[in-house]
Write a structure and sequence with these properties.
By secondary structure, the protein is of the alpha/beta class. It has a single domain, classed as Alpha-Beta Complex (Spore Coat Polysaccharide Biosynthesis Protein SpsA, Chain A). Strands 2-1-3-9-5-10-8-7 form an 8-stranded mixed sheet, with helices on both faces. A two-stranded antiparallel ribbon has the order 4-11. The protein has a two-stranded antiparallel ribbon with strand order 6-12. Helix 3 crosses helix 5. The radius of gyration is 17 Å and the shape is globular. This is Lgt2B/C.
Length: 254
């Protein structure tokens, strides 16, 4: 069974009201997970053994976001949950999301997958031929980086793979959580993309300041400021450059 959690700062009243409305109108059960805040970074970094405190690549907002996701993965392992759906509190859900999640739950009983990305950033990405279709949505192997962690399903095995990878990094090697899952170790896991996507972040479809992403604003100001490029990075960049002009495609939200 998939358990649904929404990461949200405890005091973010308007965002929580939005989520209760968005999930409630489709009858999707969920629990709020109180997000790690910048003032909690030190406590959670030590608790989760993630040496991120002195990292200069990430903003405090990105560090807090990173630790929020890791805390949920650890909770899944501690409670021995098979799968967990993790959402952020600024999402819109697509049509018939409840039915899709129900069909996905049944499908996962017979099929092992590490991560399923429910979200789209409407950017060009590389996906392969669908492995199945559930409620008019394809599940396609994801082969290139796709921004965002606002909506995804993760297995306990997938969480362990990511946590094992994180344990090999020193304080200065950490980078945004979406780059970890959907880029750095994407080749080491089975990762599927839902197409069309059932989740999109509000700032991509709404100008409401309630959903303005401080993390994204900070990330744009901080992007690549401290990142050391490797030969593999340049190879990926070249591949994406060619792909975006040829066979890559945008994932629609529906």
């Amino acid at each position: 069974m998939i358990q649904n959690f929404v990461i949200s700062v405890k005091t973010a009243t308007k965002r929580r009201e939005h989520i209760m409305c968005e999930f409630g109108k489709q009858g999707i059960a969920f629990e709020f997970f109180d997000a790690v805040t910048p003032t909690d970074i030190s406590k959670y970094a030590q608790k989760l053994s993630i040496p991120i405190i002195n990292n200069q690549r990430l903003t405090d907002g990105e560090k807090a976001c990173f630790l929020s996701h890791v805390a949920l993965w650890q909770q899944m392992i501690d409670e021995n949950l098979d799968y967990m759906a993790i959402f952020e509190d600024d999402v819109y859900l697509g049509n018939d999301s409840q039915q899709f999640l129900q069909e996905l739950t049944i499908w996962l009983q017979q099929n092992a997958v590490d991560v399923i990305k429910l979200e789209t950033w409407v950017e060009k990405i590389h996906i392969k031929k669908a492995v199945t279709v559930l409620n008019h949505r394809q599940l396609c192997p994801l082969k290139t980086f796709h921004t965002g962690t606002a909506g995804y399903v993760i297995s306990q095995q997938g969480a362990k793979i990511i946590l094992d990878y994180l344990s090999t990094l020193d304080a200065f090697e950490f980078f945004p959580i979406d780059h970890v899952i959907f880029d750095a170790i994407i080749s080491k896991m089975s990762v599927l993309q839902v197409n069309p996507a059932m989740v999109i972040q509000a700032h991509l479809v709404s100008e409401d300041d309630t959903f303005k992403s401080l993390i994204e604003t900070q990330r744009k100001q901080n992007v690549n400021q401290h990142r050391r490029r490797t030969l593999a990075d340049y190879g990926k960049k070249y591949y994406r450059s060619i792909g975006k002009r040829t066979f890559f495609q945008r994932i629609a939200f529906q």
